[in-house]
Write a structure and sequence with these properties.
Helix content of chain A: 25-40%
Strand content of chain A: 25-35%
Strand order of the largest sheet of chain B: 1-4-5-9-8-7-6
Shape of chain B: rod-shaped
Structural class of chain B: alpha+beta
Strand order of the largest sheet of chain A: 22-25-26-30-29-28-27
Structural class of chain A: alpha+beta
Radius of gyration of chain B: 40 Å
Number of strands of chain A: 34
Radius of gyration of chain A: 39 Å
Distance between the termini of chain B: 75 Å
Oligomer: heterodimer
Number of domains of chain A: 5
Largest sheet of chain A: 7 strands, mixed
Largest interface: A-B, 90 and 89 residues
CATH topology of the largest domain in chain A: Phenylalanyl-tRNA Synthetase, Chain B, domain 3
Number of helices of chain B: 11
Helix content of chain B: 25-40%
CATH architecture of the largest domain in chain A: 3-Layer(bba) Sandwich
Order of helices and strands of chain B: HHHHHEEHEHEEHEEEHEHH
Largest sheet of chain B: 7 strands, mixed
CATH superfamily of the largest domain in chain A: Phenylalanyl-trna Synthetase, Chain B, domain 3
Distance between the termini of chain A: 85 Å
């Protein structure tokens, strides 16, 4: 949470010789982070980020208290001035002017006091300027007091027009689903249920607690008697209401992190004093204070060795005592054992020994710690690590001209299978499902480049999520890619080169599948196992491929074997055949390759109209083949190609 | 005939002498010796010559042929020696088709290599996880805001009775407990993975990448965390860069820190690009004893530190890319992809 703290307001509580810049710098190093100092006509203002565990610092006084502990370590004088309060009141759980029935689980501490004969008007110059410096518009003395207390102490304050509370009675309870309330700003809310509300003696809802007051009991210029109202609430209830109704405010932010019940009392005393001064109102002598379970003082124990071990350096006992005392803790030592009593404003935050270690370390100053990489045993690398393999694939595809993309794993319903996992709370319909294939994502990626007329190839390695009943999905790392404006043979060549480079002995088998053009899809198999697919898509003029990384890896033999280089040269010749239409050249090559053991290799060399030229390597490991031997094999080839495919040999 | 031959010879000689380059010489050779060249045609006519003169004429033609060939060859050599064949070195090359690795891949590669050098092992854990690993075991209280529907994506699946709802990991920290379950200390783990949070604006994408480091051993202290952070700052961002830690708050570490890297432009003095000489990179902390316990590690014997930062953020900080909208990193526009 970001807060604004005007410098001159801060210095009302913080007596120090540190400059504004020093305050900002040292706070950031050892406490809440000062993001910047803003110059304002009234004062310099610190913009400070307060962490959720330290809502005790989300106020002018809280920052002053924190700074008074931090600055002395940097050689600056610093003293915290206390809040001047005179307590002429009695605090009682029953008063004449209000009967209140409160659920302590919803509201641990409930305080209220009636202030009579208030004069509605403008606040003092100082109050107005301070509010403005914090970015809050001054409205009237009554509203301004509430805001002033919240900014100074971090305690939200509410006020009712006392005379609008029917029967002078209140019931603080959980709302029922569907109950309606109109708030101060004239908005009507239909409550989701389980919100903290107050109903008056006539059963009317007069407050949506912690979020916004009700319109029925709102202060206006005719208000004479004000019921000052200061509480803390169960943080969970407040957050739920605030998020569900989308009503975010500083008060809600404070309440939903939890407020020190002791602060409730400080705030009501200070607010009453301000009412007397700014409105001329006269408070009742009895303050209603329903606080059935006062918080108990907590203590944390730890030993000196543990502190030293966690820190990695030794900070002396004297320094530890001094640091903790500055922060408001009460430390005491019995031999090596340290017992630390925790002040109420830190009781939600400092619970275990490590919390105390943190306090010591940060005030001592993290910048004063040395820096040293750990020694010790280095863990073993798991044998089946996939990362290097994925890297190799990416590098190869880049080398073959591919451009890598990262697309979102969350896709629309149209872009997924029917059994894909669905999100319970998606941000929109375009990102509602976990994808089970990369195909649609890549299709969209290609379409985004529709204006590109040159050939291109996009690829991605990412998980797809295959549902498994009652279990986490199978996260299947998948390689997929898409070619656009690309000749089929060029695209296929990339896949063939990839398989060859990864030393995967795969066969490519034509198989049909929905989504691909009929007869234009190939399965990539090792033995019976399908490791990937490749083909032309039904939609768009694209060629798509997809592989399971794990499958590829299991069949990729990274150890290439040495084959002795034959001492005799091969005989190489080109044979050209004319084929009838619809001849599958892959089958022709397979046939030729298997025709004779002397045929080492067959490649398609050239295509001209219906004439296909194959280059054939004849080789015998042990001797040079004679022209006669080659001729007889060639004759066999010509004969079979003619018989099986009707291909005629062009001499 | 004899005369015709000699005339031809003289013509050729003159042409050869005055020729200026190899191309011209080649043309001369074709004009006279080509299939329908002048000398070739003349040779074809030799049959018409009376038989008693054929020997003489034949000899003359051969002599002339040899002379001319020699002359052409000499002339050619003289060109090579003096003014070699004209050549244009400024003509553009024909490039192979160039591919592109995504910026994120490049960043992930660098990050893992920096940590692998000091013994970190890269691991991968589920992206779709149970609440227990993402929150519960990491010491998040039951009603912590991060566990709300507003911040974390939940999967529409039945809850696991022990491990809670199924969700998309909002941080790489979910890997901490998984790693402690996978192996026993000493642990030096780096986890770089996709994460998901329910937000989308110029500085947030609902899917993003984090890298998480986890070190657990006996006697791991704040000093070791600082050492590791400084090592990373110098080896990832560049020589002379250092890290600093400031107090912060996370559920699963105690103490918790915000980590800054010294600005590479102003070297820590303060400039327009940084905050008083420092740039925020992310969070870190000493592993909370409850987290160690939940991972089956004895917090009295072992201690550890962890950090988890955005890959996108580290990338932007390092490269000074100046991408105005983080969502652009997930663009599939070739005009973007081919820049890197």
């Amino acid at each position: 949470m970001d807060i604004l703290i005007p410098n001159n307001w801060l210095r009302e509580f913080l007596k120090t010789d540190a400059t504004n810049g020093e305050i900002a710098k040292y706070l950031s190093l050892s406490g809440p982070s000062v993001e910047k100092i803003i110059k304002n006509s009234f004062s310099e203002v610190y913009s400070i980020e307060v962490t959720t565990n330290r809502m005790d610092t989300a106020s002018v006084y809280g920052i002053a208290r924190e700074a008074s502990a931090i600055l002395p370590r940097f050689g600056k004088k610093a003293k915290l001035a206390s809040i001047k309060l005179t307590n002429n009141f009695t605090f009682s759980n029953k008063v004449d002017y209000l009967s209140a029935q409160v659920d302590p689980k919803l509201c641990p501490r409930f305080t209220s006091v009636l202030i009579k004969n208030v004069k509605f008007g403008k606040s003092s110059q100082v109050v107005r300027e301070r509010l403005s410096a914090c970015g809050i518009r001054p409205i009237n003395n009554i509203v301004d007091i509430s805001n002033y207390i919240m900014l100074e102490l971090g305690q939200p304050v509410h006020t009712f027009d006392y005379d609008k509370i029917k029967g002078s009675s209140m019931v603080l309870r959980e709302s029922k689903k569907g109950e309606k309330i109109t708030t101060l700003d004239d908005k009507e809310f239909i409550l989701p249920g389980g919100d903290i509300v107050i109903e008056d003696g006539k059963g009317r809802l007069i407050d949506l607690c912690g979020i916004m007051g009700g319109g029925l009991s709102a202060i206006d210029e005719y208000t004479q008697n004000v019921l000052l109202f200061i509480q803390n609430y169960d943080p969970i209830h407040i957050r739920k209401t605030s998020m569900t109704l989308a009503q975010r405010s500083m008060a809600a932010s404070l309440f939903e992190k939890g407020i020190d019940p002791e602060l409730v009392k400080t705030a009501i005393l200070k607010a009453t004093k301000m009412f007397e001064e700014l409105t001329g109102g006269i408070p009742e002598k009895e303050v209603l204070d329903i606080y059935p379970n006062p918080i108990k003082e907590k203590a944390v124990s730890l030993d000196f060795e543990k502190i030293t071990k966690k820190l990695g350096i030794e900070i002396s006992r004297k320094d530890i005592t001094e640091i903790l005392t500055l922060l408001g803790f009460s430390p005491s030592w019995i031999k090596n054992q340290l017992k630390v009593s925790v002040p109420s404003f830190r009781s939600d935050d400092v619970i275990i020994p490590e919390d105390v270690v943190e306090e010591i370390a940060r005030i001592y100053g993290y910048h004063n710690f040395p820096s040293r990489i750990m020694s010790g045993v280095i863990p073993d690398k798991p044998a089946d690590s996939p990362f290097d393999f994925e890297e190799i694939i990416k590098n190869l595809l880049k080398g073959y001209g591919g451009a890598e993309v990262y697309t979102f794993s969350l896709v629309s319903k149209a872009n997924t299978d029917k059994d894909s996992l669905k999100l319970a709370n998606p941000l929109g319909t375009d990102s509602e499902y976990l994808r089970t294939s990369l195909m649609h994502s890549l299709s969209e990626a290609v379409k985004q480049n529709a204006s590109e007329k040159e050939a291109f190839h996009l690829f991605e390695i990412a998980n797809v999520y295959i549902p498994k009943n009652g279990k986490l999905p199978d996260e299947k790392m998948t390689l997929a890619g898409m070619f656009a404006n690309t000749d089929y043979r060029q695209a296929k060549g990339v896949i063939e080169a990839l398989l060859e480079e990864l030393n995967i002995k795969a066969v490519l088998v034509q198989e049909e599948l929905k989504g691909f053009l009929p007869g234009q899809r190939i399965e990539i198999k090792v033995g019976d196992k399908v490791i990937g697919q490749f083909g032309n898509l039904e939609e768009g003029n694209y060629t798509y491929y997809e592989f399971g990384i794990a499958e590829m890896k299991s069949y990729s033999d990274s150890h290439k074997k040495y084959v002795p280089i034959p001492s005799n040269p091969p005989q190489i010749e080109d044979l050209t055949f004319n084929f009838p239409v619809k001849t599958k050249i892959g089958d022709v090559i397979n046939l030729i390759s298997s025709k004779d053991k002397t045929i080492e290799k067959v490649e398609l060399k050239d295509i001209f109209n219906d004439a296909y030229t194959f280059r054939i390597w004849y080789q015998d490991k042990n001797r040079t083949l004679t022209n006669k031997e080659v001729e007889s094999v060639r004759k066999e080839i010509v004969k079979t190609v003619k018989a099986k495919f009707g291909g005629t040999y062009k001499d | 005939m004899q005369e015709e031959i000699l005339t031809l010879k003289n013509q050729v000689l003159a042409q050869i002498m005055s020729s200026k380059d190899v191309i011209e010489l080649e043309q001369i050779r074709i004009d006279y010796f080509g299939r329908s060249g002048k000398l070739t045609s003349l040779m074809k006519k030799i049959r018409e010559v009376p038989s008693d003169q054929r020997g003489q004429i034949g000899q003359t033609i051969n002599e002339v042929k040899l002379t001319i060939e020699e002359l052409i060859s000499n002339k050619k050599n003289s060109f090579k020696e003096n003014a070699r064949e004209w050549f244009d070195p400024t003509i553009p090359g024909v490039k192979p088709k160039m591919g592109h690795l995504h910026l994120l891949t490049q960043a992930i590669r660098e990050i893992s290599s920096v940590f692998e050098k000091i013994g970190f092992v890269r691991e991968r854990y589920p992206e779709v996880e149970w609440d227990y690993y993402a929150f519960g075991a990491l010491n998040f209280p039951k009603n912590h805001p991060a566990r709300d529907d507003w911040e974390t994506f939940f999967v529409d699946q039945p809850e696991n009775p022990k491990l809670g709802p199924m969700l998309l990991t909002p941080h790489t920290s979910s890997g901490q407990i998984r790693e402690m379950e996978r192996t026993k200390p000493p642990i030096r783990m780096i986890n770089i993975a996709k994460c998901y949070r329910r937000q989308s604006d110029v500085s947030h994408t609902q899917m993003f990448h984090q890298f998480e480091g986890l070190v657990i051993d006996t006697d791991i202290s704040i000093v070791n965390l600082k050492g590791t952070l400084d090592y990373f700052a110098e080896n990832f961002f560049g020589k002379g860069r250092v890290a600093r830690i400031r107090p912060y708050h996370f559920q699963f570490t105690e103490p918790s820190f915000e980590v800054d890297i010294s600005c590479g432009i102003c070297k820590g003095k303060g400039c327009k690009l940084c905050k008083e000489g420092w740039l925020e990179i992310g969070g870190a902390g000493m592993v909370h004893p409850n987290v160690l316990k939940n991972g089956g590690v004895d917090p009295n014997k072992y201690s550890g530190f962890a950090f988890g930062w955005g890959v996108e953020r580290a990338l932007m900080m390092k490269s000074g890319l100046n991408i105005p909208d983080l969502r652009m990193l997930y663009s599939t526009d070739l005009r973007f992809l081919t820049q890197f």
